[in-house]
Amino acid sequence: MTTRDTIANGLSRRDLLKLTAAAAVMLASRNAIAADFHRFQHGTFDITVVSDGFLTLPAEILLPDATLEERQAIMPRLGGNAATAPVQANIPLIRHGEDLILIDTGSGSHFQASAGKLAANLKSLGIAPEAITKVVFTHAHPDHSGATTTIDGKVLYPNAQYFVSEAEWAFWTDKDYATHMPSALHDFARGAQRDLFAVKDRLTLVRPDQEIIPGMRIQQTRGHTPGHVSIELAGDGGLLITGDACTNDVIFFENPAWHFGFDTEPEVALRTRQMLLDRAATDKLKMLGYHWSYPGVGYAERKDASYRFVSA
Ligand SMILES: [Zn+2]
């Protein structure tokens, strides 16, 4: 399967934006941002999972490989209906020494209106945008890097140093993207360029295995995008902040052979996800998933030939 096939079969960003306000309102009550924030210690890291809100995704994107019966069984378990389901956006705020680090910035005003709540939630925790010292991107999709700038083009976290993988930068900043990428990716490319170019003068390009600070290491988890990375924190057997290497805690734990409709390199993403879940189950690795049920912290437990998500 090629990138073009998958994207062509999927919905564009515009289609997603068009999802009805009524559906969003209906889901909002069920998916209200957790009033109390999930906070825990991992090794020397103090972590608070702050919600950016939620996104509504269509079944064609969430579980394209499922049969109709499987869809009907799974979609309600995600809190959705037959056509769409909500997915959370969990952003770890990591305190370490003098650092206050965000892994991804969320959607800001550049994606669905049910997301983009991170800055407001940080404020309710007493954290001003100026206090953030580092932002590490797992990848440059609009629901992860969209809040780099405010709606009037200002950098939202003015004192932060930014980190993105070399491969992610190279993929999205291709000046000939219009001819090199299928048209369904053009909106994403324009969004990634908007976000990455806005912080170009304070952006560090990183490679897999590189450390951001002692104990915080970049891990290659390519496939969702060509430069997608996860972030691993040392201590207590490790904590892997997975980003979108595994986009749902029900669908892909229980069906690790299924594709996700927004993976740019579907087969690479599939292998990455399978290796990740296998390692996580074998090593009892703690994980934090961006789109998993809030707060998205837990483990993969083997169940026959698949897995079960076990909340930490
Ligand atoms: Zn995402």
Summarize the SSE layout with pairings.
Elements lengths: L2 H7 L3 H5 L3 H10 L7 E5 L2 E14 H4 L5 H7 L9 E13 L2 E5 L14 H7 L9 E3 L5 H4 L15 E5 H7 L4 H4 L5 H13 L4 E4 L4 E3 L2 E5 L8 E5 L5 E5 L7 H4 L11 H18 L2 E4 L7 E7 L2 E6 L1
Parallel strand pairs: 4-5, 5-6, 6-7, 11-12
Antiparallel strand pairs: 1-2, 2-3, 3-4, 8-9, 9-10, 10-11, 12-13, 13-14
The structure holds zinc ion.
Family: Belongs to the metallo-beta-lactamase superfamily.
EC number: 3.1.1.81
Keywords: Hydrolase, Metal-binding, Signal, Zinc
Textual characterization of the structure:
The chain is of the alpha/beta class and 312 residues long. The chain has a single domain, classed as Metallo-beta-lactamase, Chain A. Helices cover 29% and strands 27% of the residues. It has twelve helices and 14 strands. The strands form two sheets. It has a seven-stranded mixed beta sheet. It has a seven-stranded mixed beta sheet with strand order 8-9-10-11-12-13-14. Strand 12 (286-289) and strand 13 form a beta hairpin. The longest helix is centred in the last third of the chain and has 18 residues, at 266-283. The chain is globular and about 50 Å long. The protein starts with a helix and ends with a strand. Residues 1-11 and 17-34 have low confidence and may be disordered. The protein binds zinc ion.
